Amino acid sequence: MLGRNDRTILQNVFLFLCLMGWGVACQRSAEEASSAGQAALGTTKAPASVPEGMVWVPGGSFLMGTNEQQAYPQEQPAHAVKVKAFFMDATEVTNAQFKAFVQATGYLTLAERKPDWQEMQKQLPAGTPKPAEDQLVAGALVFSPPSQPVASYDYSQWWRWMPGANWQHPEGPGSDLQGRLQHPVVHIAYEDALAYCQWAGKRLPTEAEWEFAAKAGQQQRYAWGDEFRPQGKFMANTFQGQFPNRNVAEDGFTGTAPVQSFPANAYGLYDMIGNVWEWTADWYDARAYQQRAGQLVSNPQGPAQSFDPQDPYAQQRVTKGGSYLCALEYCVNYRPSARIGTAYDTGMSHTGFRCVMDVE
Ligand SMILES: [Ca+2]
Ligand SMILES: [Ca+2]
To answer: How far is the CA of 237 from the centre of ligand 2 (A)?
Structure first.
């Protein structure tokens, strides 16, 4: 009969061997680790009540990241991580929910305020000249697809800085939220997401919590299993066609979809994959998974600072899950292990969030 500590040691050994590629069945060991982890953490018992609109995520151990060869370097390797139980919003925060927050507090999102040149300079190479005053206006990056195929590395071909674009005017002045109150709120900067979560008595998830929840405690490629379209069925709002110019929307949605348009994962969480990217609390460091490999890390809170070799001046937080703009032949980021850094002060038409809450 194993004691609690023995189980934890065994679980660590399994995960270590798995990570070292010693032929131990990773899937099985992850399941054992998950079950042992939950026992060790004492989190297998669901709480008596769950806050409205949230689900209980039981906590446990899992393999964060992936060893799939086609995955991006920043997602590798798979490494053992343990998280405590928590509550998580079942859906992305909707326009209706964000509207209630703004009506209650008068909050103005970053995209609605005039940019602060002092802050902007911190993310630009030294000596970058100050833009003209009439260019320093409130706005956000709006997806504006070209009519012809373009080079896939040139973001400027489909992202356009649009003065006046913000959560209430997603495509800029003249656009509004009519018919979109149940869609996820977009053009949300990191501090806007924090402000909403704090107002709601919640917080942003760490990247580890987010990924554990998306994988539903399993080592699976997507939030629902290993196949992108089981029995031909779309399980998430992504991009079909030729990115970025031809969106054929086979899944039924060209842009954002109302939350809960696709099935929930095993934990009852909707749209963890696709629809909109979701902010997490962690700074983005492309090397974070490599640095944690080979040890069982408990409740990681992310690196101390941001580091992206492709964008060394950027101050980025991790966003997860991909969006309605993730295409098979372009980004393939609609997987739980996928991770990108997003500048903390940038509102975009494909970025939203959801909150979590600690279990007392
Ligand atoms: Ca779609
Ligand atoms: Ca999402």
So the answer is: 9
CA of 323 to the centre of ligand 2 (A): 6
User: What is the domain extent for residue 210?
Assistant: 90-360
Q: What is the band of 122 on the pLDDT scale with cuts at 50, 70, 90?
A: confident
- The 10 Å Cβ neighbour count of residue 168 is 18
Kindly state the helix (H) or strand (E) to which residue 55 belongs, with its residue range: strand 54-57
Q: Which ligand is nearest to the CA of 336?
A: 2
Which pair of structure tokens corresponds to residue 32?
């054992």
The count of domains in the chain is: 1
273, 320 Cβ separation under 8 angstroms: no
CATH label of the domain that carries residue 162: 3.90.1580.10
49 is a domain residue: no
Answer yes or no: are the C-beta atoms of 275 and 258 closer than 8 Å.
no
User: Would 222 be classed as within a structural domain?
Assistant: yes
- Going from the Cα of 225 to the center of ligand 1, the distance in angstroms, rounded, reads 19
Q: How far does residue 170's CA lie from ligand 1's centre (Å)? A: 17
Give the whole-angstrom CA distance, residue 145 versus residue 129: 29
Please give the distance, rounded to the nearest whole angstrom, from the Cα atom of residue 155 to the centre of ligand 2: 21
Sheet strands (E) in 67-186: 79-83, 86-89, 139-143, 159-163
Predicted confidence (pLDDT) per residue in 341-359, tens digit: 999 998 899 999 999 999 9
pLDDT at residue 17 is higher than 80: no
How far does residue 237's CA lie from ligand 1's centre (Å)? 4
**Inside any domain, residue 266:** yes
Mean pLDDT of 97-112: 98
Q: What is the CA(313)–ligand 1 centre distance, in A?
A: 32
Query: Does a structural domain hold residue 255?
Result: yes
